Amino acid sequence: MPQSYEYDVLIIGSGAAGLTVALNLPEHLSVAVISKGEISSGATLWAQGGIAAVLDSDDSLEDHIQDTLAAGAGLCHEDAVRFTVEHGRESIEWLVDSGVAFTRDENAQLHLTREGGHSHRRIIHAADATGHAVSSTLTGQAAARKNVDLLDSRVAVDLITNRKLALPGNRCVGAYVLNLKDSHVELFRARFVVLATGGASKAYRYTSNPDGASGDGIAMAWRAGCRAVNMEFNQFHPTCLYHPHAKSFLITEALRGEGGHLLLPDGSRFMDRFDSRAELAPRDIVARAIDHEMKRLGADHLYLDISHKPAAFIKEHFPTIYEKCLEFGIDMTSQPIPVVPAAHYTCGGIKTDSRARSDINQLYVVGEAAFTGLHGANRMASNSLLECLVYGQAAARDITARSADVPSPPPAPDWDESQVRDSDEDVVISHNWDELRHFMWDYVGIVRTTKRLQRAKHRIDLLDREIGEFYSNYRVSSDLLELRNLVTVADLIICSALQRRESRGLHYTLDFPGLLHEARDTVLVPTSFRTQSP
Question: Active-site residue numbers?
Answer without folding.
Answer: 283
